[in-house]
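Everyone, study these two lines:
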Amino acid sequence: MSDTPDTYTAFIGGKRIAAGTLAETAAGVRAAMDGDATAMALIFEDATGRAVDVDLRGTAEEVRARLTPAEAPRGPGRPRLGVTAREVTLLPRHWDWLAGQPGGASAALRRLVEEARRTHADRDGWRQAKERAYRFMSAIAGGFEGFEEASRALFAHDAEAFARCIAGWPADVQAHLAWLARDVPTSRTDIAPCGRLPIGECPMSRR
């Protein structure tokens, strides 16, 4: 299963115009929009395929500065371990079983979650890849010819039909879809070098 970095990609129409951190991508969008009052840009989170709303007011440098997180000074003491407390609702027999496990309920739940993550890692990766590709498709290509057929092919893992349905779409859209859907399994043996649906080029070489 591939890891998706904490990056963003921006499009104006079907053309890919910027990519990188949110600050870098938004600044690239702002620069591309200068002098074109009609330009409509979409910024997508690569990890989920979701479109994100960004404040693009001001110059490109002002946009970048606004979205660049300030580095907080580290205070004295031990670093935080990242443990988050949340409510869990279980039946009494579940609590009884957890209470008898080594380390108590919290440690047992953490072990169960980690085991489930390892067991279902591939399946979860396939599902997430399909979902992020579909979110991107819906936002940028919902009105394109062949969208419904391409959606069905994506969820059916039919790479040949998927490639055929989107063949007339802009090249940048095809390439980004190929990268987002790279973890979707296919029965075809001629999978492209990225290990993804065999469409477009591998945009990882440009990142």
User: Anything to note?
Assistant: The two ends are 19 Å apart (CA to CA).
